[in-house]
Amino acid sequence: MTTAGAAGHPGRATAGRTAAERRVAADTKASFRTTEFYAYIAMAAVIVITAISTTTLNTEQTIRYLTLLTIGYMLSRGLAKSGHSRAYDDGV
Known about the structure:
Layout: E1 23-26, H1 35-53, H2 59-81, E2 86-89
Antiparallel strand pairs: 1-2
């Protein structure tokens, strides 16, 4: 017989535990708290600044590079979230 424990998950008994002692699983960090978010913003800024300040990038190339950068960022976030969970204490 399994018991419903933390957040209704079977097999995770919480008997004898206080709310502060109970561990719960979260998905992943919020996107703005990750390194890849800041790398994405920095690279997008570099692409835009380069397009504005030089004649080496035209509008079509700039949009293409920003699109590819965005796709890469979305893939990295998707891979980070797929099958990964981190445990943290309630209230953190």
